Amino acid sequence: MTDTTRLTCTCGQLAVDVEGPPILSVECCCTSCRAAAAILEQRPGAPKILGAHGTTPFVMYRKDRIRWAAGTADLREHRLSPDAPTRRVVATCCNTPVFLEFAGGHWLSLYAHLWPTAARPPLQLRTMTKDLPPGTSLPTDVPNANTQSARFMVKLLTAWIAMGFRAPKLPLPIAPLDA
Ligand SMILES: [Zn+2]
Ligand SMILES: [Zn+2]
User: Fold this and answer.
1) Ion ligand 1: residues, Cβ under 5 Å
2) DSSP-derived pairing of the beta strands 75-78 and 66-70
3) In 3D, which of 60, 65, 66, 62 has the Cα closest to residue 24?
4) pTM here?
5) Whole-angstrom Cα distance, residue 162 to residue 51?
6) What digits encode the pLDDT tens for the residues 79-95?
7) Which of 27, 32, 138, 179 is 20 to 30 A away from residue 50, measured at CA?
8) Residues in Cβ contact with 136 at an 8 Å cutoff, skipping those fewer than 6 apart
9) Residue 156, Cβ neighbours under 10 Å: how many?
């Protein structure tokens, strides 16, 4: 039996099940994640998602290990620009940011605050630290990679091989936020 973890938005309407361990648990330091978090955090009732150093914690899961259980009708996507290949998806029932998807990717980066703090998969890596303001001093508890480190790419590639090089489409229609 694989163990399944049930995650919900703040109000509990959205439920999503993830199977087994994640690909990686990371904090992204990139400018886009920071800009998007600043926008999404402004929404009424939204949780704070930026960490102490302006980093965004994500837990990366294979798309074929994610099951959408309930409440998906309120999901809406946000893009930093109309043709951006990356979208961030919010549960608008309570404005909880849910995941980041890179177009064509075989994984989703779920916002780590979907997990209760004690149950959150332990942080393994920070990526894109080159985007942080000069002088930011990060803790050295995990490797801090300048860009997307070799380990990050290898983990993603290993997952993709295990998936037979498939990138499943999300079984959900998601309209733009505030359309
Ligand atoms: Zn990022
Ligand atoms: Zn909700």
Assistant:
1) 28, 30, 33
2) unpaired
3) 60
4) 0.95
5) 32
6) 999 999 999 999 999 99
7) 179
8) 53, 54, 129
9) 18
